[in-house]
Amino acid sequence: MIDQLPPLREVIAQHNLSAQKSLGQNFLLDLNLTSKIARQAGDLTQSDVLEIGPGPGGLTRGLLAEGARRVIAIEKDRRCIAALEDIQKAYPDRLEILEGDALSINPLERLTGPVKVVANLPYNVGTELLIRWLTPTRWPPFWTSLTLMFQKEVAERIVAPVASKAYGRLALLSQWRTDANIVMNLPPSAFTPPPKVSSAVVHLTALNAPRFEAEAAVLEKTVAKAFNQRRKMLRSSLKGLTPDLEEKLNAAGISPTLRAEQVSLEQFCALARLC
Fold first, then answer.
1. Within 13 Å of residue 20, how many CA atoms lie on the same side as its CB?
2. What is the percent of the chain where pLDDT is above 70?
3. What SS3 state is found at 159?
4. Rounded to whole angstroms, how far apart are CA atoms 227 and 19?
5. Residue 179: per-residue pLDDT
6. Which of 1-5, 11-15, 78-82 has the highest mean pLDDT?
7. For residues 202 and 181, is the Cβ–Cβ distance under 8 A?
8. What are phi and psi of 112, to 5 degrees?
9. Domain residue ranges of the chain, discontinuous segments joined by +
10. Strands 27-28 and 191-192, sheet pairing
11. How many other CB atoms sit within 10 Å of the CB of residue 51?
């Protein structure tokens, strides 16, 4: 056992914490596994950690046992708060619990850098949170790395190479400003209740500057428009994006007859600089 607290199955039974599908909950009960996920974030001893959706606290316990300086945990499910408070008592002054929706809570004033985000994200908000963290108004962001669990399909979209089936907006936004790698794969049987899909942990390290120069808002608009109709040629899918579209595509080294999935990050950035 990683600490002196009771096994998670006992915690769940004590607090009547059945996972709720409406909250995207699937609990990890193996504390050896949650500690392994925590270690994927690297040395935690000099960092504050932001955790979203801790549930009964399996990953929270892993983060604290692996030496996280402080953990700020945001939990929407009120039923889980008592279980998290038990962990708080076992790790005095190292765990702060914020009850509420991670999409509406701003935890930045409670965090002291450097900050790492480590989370088994609820399936229903994971992608939205990732895009928010990748698209702040200023870069570098408040975090140095993100270590996040997703459905495996989403994880593959984050790391997808150009011209692959999974390549799209998520890959471009992630790879423009971070180094992104899948570091763990987890089968459905690792969770309670088992989801219908496999999961994967992705580790994203923030770059000091984007890989290629481009204005964020223009690049995001261009990529979103291109992949909104990904089966069409760019001269059609990007119609209305900018005057003299085909001329600018050619200037960026992009054939107007290509489809979005055939265009590299560097080429999209070159186009964004011309728009």
1. 12
2. 97
3. helix
4. 35
5. 98
6. 78-82
7. yes
8. -115, 125
9. 8-206, 216-274
10. antiparallel
11. 26
Q: What is the pLDDT of residues 46-59, one digit of tens each?
A: 999 999 999 999 99
- Tokens at 71, concatenated: 């953990």
Of 230, 226, 229, 228, nearest to 242 (Cα)?
A: 226
95 Cβ neighbours under 8 A, 6+ residues apart? 60, 64, 70, 71, 73, 84, 87, 88
More confident residue, 95 or 193: 95
Quote the pTM value: 0.94
| pLDDT class of 29 with cuts at 50, 70, 90 | confident
One-character DSSP codes across 122-175: -TTTHHHHHHHHH--SSSS-S-SEEEEEEEHHHHHHHHPPTTSTT-SHHHHHHH
Decide if pLDDT at 188 tops 60.
Answer: yes
Tell me the C-alpha distance between 199 and 91, whole Å. 29
Element (H, E) at 119: strand 115-120
* Bridge partners, residue 147, by sequence: 118, 203
> Who contacts 239 (Cβ-Cβ below 8 Å, separation ≥6)?
245
Q: Determine the number of helices (DSSP H) and then strands (DSSP E) in the chain.
A: 11, 9
CATH number of the domain at 216-274, please?
1.10.8.100
Instruction: Check if the beta carbon of residue 122 is closer than 8 Å to that of residue 148.
Output: no
CATH architecture of 8-206: 3-Layer(aba) Sandwich (3.40)
- Mean pLDDT for all residues in the chain: 94
- Helices 58-65 and 81-90, interaxial angle, to 10°? 20
Q: Is the confidence at residue 1, as pLDDT, over 60?
A: no
241 residue type, one letter: L
Tell me if 9 sits within 8 A of 56, measured CB to CB.
no
For residues 221 and 241, what is the distance between their CA atoms, to the nearest angstrom? Answer: 9
- Give me 170's structure tokens: 């998520």
pLDDT at residue number 199: 94
Residues 6+ apart with CB under 8 A from 195: 26, 123, 151, 188
